[in-house]
Inverse folding.
């Protein structure tokens, strides 16, 4: 559907042409009317227009100036001038604009005008079709290129192709990944019954990553059934905090899928490597998964390469040992969620008492899983949990030596459990109204950030996004999204009154386009942003 704007300071001309155009096109076109240059400009700021039929000589804003303003707003619009004077000077100036499509005299009659408008409408439709065809062709090429690149990467992962050969074939990178920059490999395990189920879950995870990733580019692969792989790359030198960032991100995705889909998905976050080493890294990460308790408990586990080299290949000595360890993890999680620090300490003492004094109570791979549980619970309670550094120190010591002494391990675990119990009790003791007040303050303080979202707000408060939404609704009787929308609306009003253009206001309030913002504003106020500005000016 095309939009036509008629502009003239003579209302009878506007109404006459509008009536005929509306009769000719019916539902195929929208016909807008403006009775001055400034009136037309206000319409153009709120509506995308395809064809403008405008008088030149108008008292407030002439047609040439209006065309210049239109070019900055809608650079693909078609502009036709309609005048009572045959002025070569006007024609010469107008013809320099890419929007200019002709100059008609009013005395030529409505039939000539209507024919010209119809011609430009047809051209607009052809341009739109051509643009769609070009875009579809471009997307097909991109899809084919992405398919070939993914197939090449999967072949490298499986050891079927040498990296050097692939790098020569794709010198500009693979699916957005740079060949020279390091990557972080993440292995997933999806417990689904069919390949179709796995692919469906892979699509859902990719969508979550696309929404939440702020630092990384990524490509997803499926080299083996039920075991997707993601290659993450930021470009340049990876920072030490990047692995922790991805660790926390995949933990949140894991939790989201469990809550919304009932899905059991596990992840192993690998350490950084070059694309030339991804086959070796892939093999290493798979073996870590296979020889640990990680897969059974669905815990995100960091890849420590040195540790893996020391412990891989060690098989379980007793079949019941793994069962006892799993039961210990379950009991410990339950205690940390509902019990006391003393009860947690008793569980640990029980586990340590089962083996001789000179032996480690847990195997290295079991310890790593236990550390993963503590990290996960700490981050659930507090995004910047202070105990994380202590857990990381234990992991690093384990990686260096391949074992941890009981004298070092038991008091460290007891202190970490005590920290988690105190943190849980402190969080539970929060007054609900105080938390609500904090949420409202964060909304007001963040409305200028351009990205006031539920996920971002949850990160600031320290709650899980779904829990935050439920908490706010239970304690206020109002949806959190309504409070966010209200804050956005008030912020938008302040910007509009301050003279900001609608497209700038849309961007600063987090909307994808001016039209989306206009619909939001009208739905919540009963008027368009332009009408609001006019009303505010009158007051």
């Amino acid at each position: 559907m095309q939009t036509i704007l008629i502009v003239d300071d003579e209302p009878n001309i506007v109404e006459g042409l509008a009536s005929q155009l509306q009769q000719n096109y019916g539902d195929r076109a929208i016909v807008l009317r403006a009775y001055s240059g400034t009136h037309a400009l206000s319409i153009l700021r709120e509506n995308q227009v395809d064809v403008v039929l405008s008088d030149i000589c108008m008292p407030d804003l002439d047609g040439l100036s209006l065309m210049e303003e239109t070019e900055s707003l809608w650079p693909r619009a078609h502009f036709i001038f309609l005048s009572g004077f045959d002025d070569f000077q006007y024609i010469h100036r107008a013809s320099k604009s890419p929007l200019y499509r002709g100059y008609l005299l009013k005395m030529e009659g409505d039939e000539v005008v209507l024919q010209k408008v119809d011609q430009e409408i047809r051209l607009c439709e052809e341009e739109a079709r051509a643009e769609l065809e070009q875009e579809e062709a471009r997307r097909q090429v991109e899809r084919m290129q992405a398919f070939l690149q993914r197939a090449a990467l999967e072949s490298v992962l499986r050891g079927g192709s040498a990296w050097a050969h692939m790098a020569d074939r794709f010198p500009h990178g693979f699916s957005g990944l740079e060949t020279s920059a390091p990557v972080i490999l993440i292995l997933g395990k999806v417990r689904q019954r069919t390949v179709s189920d796995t692919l469906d879950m892979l699509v859902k995870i990719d969508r979550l990553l696309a929404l939440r990733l702020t630092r990384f580019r990524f490509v997803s692969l499926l080299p083996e059934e039920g075991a997707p792989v993601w290659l993450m790359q930021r470009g340049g030198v990876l920072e030490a905090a990047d692995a922790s960032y991805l660790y926390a991100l995949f933990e949140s995705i894991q939790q989201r899928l469990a809550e919304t889909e009932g899905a059991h998905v596990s992840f192993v976050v690998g350490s950084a490597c070059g694309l030339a080493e991804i086959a070796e890294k892939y093999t290493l990460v798979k073996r870590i998964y296979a020889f640990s308790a990680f897969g059974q408990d669905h815990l995100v586990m960091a890849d420590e390469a040195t540790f893996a080299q020391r412990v891989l290949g060690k098989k379980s000595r007793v079949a019941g040992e793994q069962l006892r360890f799993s039961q210990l993890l379950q009991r410990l999680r339950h205690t940390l969620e509902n019990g006391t620090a003393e009860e947690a300490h008793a569980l640990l003492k029980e586990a340590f008492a089962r083996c001789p004094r000179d032996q480690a109570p847990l195997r290295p791979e079991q310890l790593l899983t236990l550390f993963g549980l503590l990290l996960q619970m700490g981050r659930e309670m507090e995004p910047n949990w202070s105990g994380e550094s202590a857990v990381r120190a234990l992991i690093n010591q384990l990686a260096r030596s391949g074992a941890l002494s009981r004298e070092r391990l038991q008091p460290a675990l007891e202190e970490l459990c005590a920290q988690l119990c105190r943190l849980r009790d402190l969080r539970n003791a929060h007054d609900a109204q105080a938390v609500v007040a904090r949420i409202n303050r964060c909304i007001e303080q963040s409305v200028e950030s351009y990205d006031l979202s539920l996920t971002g707000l949850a990160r600031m408060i320290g709650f899980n996004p779904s829990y935050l939404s439920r908490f706010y609704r239970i304690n206020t009787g109002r949806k959190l999204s309504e409070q966010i929308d209200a804050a956005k609306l008030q912020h938008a009003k302040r910007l509009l009154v301050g003279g900001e253009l609608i497209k700038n206001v849309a961007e600063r309030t987090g909307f994808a386009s001016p039209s989306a913002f206009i619909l939001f504003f009208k739905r919540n106020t009963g008027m368009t942003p332009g009408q609001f500005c006019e009303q505010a000016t009158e007051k």
Strands lie at 2-7, 29-34, 51-55, 78-83, 100-105, 183-190, 217-224, 227-233, 265-273, 301-302. The longest strand covers residues 265-273. The chain has three domains: 2-130, 149-409, 432-538.
